[in-house]
Amino acid sequence: MTSSKPYLIRALYDWICDNHLTPHLLVDTSGNDLSVPMEFAQDNRIVLNVSPPAVRDLNLSNDYINFKAQFSGQSMNIYFPANAVLAIYARENGRGMIFPEEEDFAVAESDSQSDTLAQNETEPGQKKNSKKKPHLKVVK
To answer: Exposed (0-12), middle (13-18) or buried (19+): which is 84, by Cβ within 10 Å?
Structure first.
């Protein structure tokens, strides 16, 4: 199953812009396959203003996010994997979404598969556990 993160990024981006606010992305810069102005990164993270007046040719695809922007007066092509986005939010009020690390999804998916396997491996004559775990994880 594909990640829901790129879909949520696009939806929240539209929502923030529709409300005349400024969308910002918090991006993990510790990966190899990215091009961001590292001089502005702190603790392997960078905040990028992706509002329409700040960027050109914005592409929020399922795999990569890329656009052109000016940094210290120089034009730069920015690109990074969509899964490197840690959060999207409006600068003015902070409303948006923080994404859990991808490893959390892998663990949850693995646990879900283990539960399904365990339910299917009951002995003949035994009742299967009809209670299913919810698929959503509440993040506070």
So the answer is: buried
Question: Closest Cα to residue 65, out of 94, 28, 34, 87?
Answer: 34
Using a 10 angstrom Cβ sphere, with 0-12 exposed, 13-18 middle and 19 or more buried, the burial of residue 33 is exposed
Per the structure, the count of domains in the chain is 2
Spatial distance between the Cα atoms of 128 and 119, rounded to a whole number of angstroms: 6
Domain of residue 132, residue span: 101-140
pLDDT of 81-139, one tens digit each? 999 999 999 999 999 999 987 654 444 444 444 444 444 444 445 444 444 444 555 55
Kindly state whether residues 24 and 45 are assigned to the same domain: yes
Token pair for residue 52?
């329409």
Percent of the chain past pLDDT 90, that is, above it, reads: 68
